[in-house]
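#help-structures
NK: newbie question, is this the right format to request a structure? protein is Ankyrin repeat-containing protein
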Amino acid sequence: MREEIASYRLMIIIQDEKVLLLHQFVKDFLVGSSAESSSGHFINEFEAHARLAHRCVAWLIQDFNDQHLARPVRSRHHISSEDRFLSYAIRSWGDHAHLAQSEFKVHDDQAEFFSVDSMCRSHWLELFRSKSAVWFINKGMEKGFSIFHVASRWDIPALVDYVYSREDRNDHFSGFNDLKWKNSRNLTPMEEAAKHGHVNVLSCLLNQETKPMKNYKHVIKRTVENQKNADKILDLLLNRRGDKITNTEEIVMTAARWSNKETMTLLLNRRGDQIIITEEIMIAAAGNYGSGEGMMTLLLNQRGDEITITQEIVETAAGNYYCGEKVITLLLDQRGDEITITEEIIEAATRNLSRSKKIMTLLFDRRGDEITITEGIVEAAAENQGKEMMTLLLDRRGDEITITEEIVRAATGNEYGEDIMTLLLDQEEIKSLSLSGGETQRYCFKLDRGDH
């Protein structure tokens, strides 16, 4: 095999018996198509992931036994290849088990890792938390992170099936009850699955319920707060437990703020007769960072006759950090005759740390005759924005702007204050401004001298 790979030259780089680089084509060459896999020459990718998952778990079990059963312990002071593989096993066994899909099964000789009460798995969790440099990777993996949480986090339905297939399980496991498995952050396995968009394992957990819960409010909330597969999970829950899902208004509000148009489309199609599009729902949609434009387009197109565009809706859109200008454009295009550009809307735009220049340029171009630049607007820009925003205001409406002491003070408290103050010092009115604050006077004097 090595000789064959070597013929691909730049696809693989090996130095001192170490693989330094593998081009993506190497994977394509080794894995091949599903038809080619049966030839025996190519690797079955799912089987490979399953083998890697089992190898990693075996290494974790060995490490646990070394640490807790008085076996000779490998030195932690020297980074060996064994230590490096342990780190890999800690991070990656779950990923490989997930990628193996149906090929992953729990082996009998690894039962101690996958049992419901497992000191070995607790040891892995401790190592995972201690070695994970990014806080959100292990967020929620505190005390009480059960085998069902593991299955839900990594989307490994085989773990759920394994627990309920064991002949030695007691009556406590006669049927899955999600609320009995809260971790120390009160997060249940079903919530974990919904939060990560893992449809398969959630379906598996539902299968193991012998008695449905009174309601699934906690799972629905996590579902519509998430965008990954939210529509698929919601569809699953409505199909399987629809009679237990009654908090429609709350679901729609949360979906409008955090989810995507696919989820809202599903809600309108399945529960439309129970849904009234209120101002609060529109405000939530206008502030949706990831899907604000799509959510607003859907609601206006499908339920526009119920909707009045209020100042609060436009103000929220102006403050949307990720897609504010797109939502404002949509509102002006479809409902411009209902919109008056107020000082509060302009202030919200100038306080928007990421989209302010685009939103203000749009508003000047489309509705500039309605805009009056007040001291509060300039002060908001001086306090929150960089030089570009202040330049835009001065270029477009410099004749309306008077530089006051409050504006100068706001600028000096800004991390971009030096750039803004340099710009303001070019304005004639600041040179005759009487500043009472000694610190502000010194700041202006320092810049005026060019003493940076």
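mod (FA): yep, format's fine, and the tokens are attached above. Residues 276-354 form one domain.
NK: thank you!
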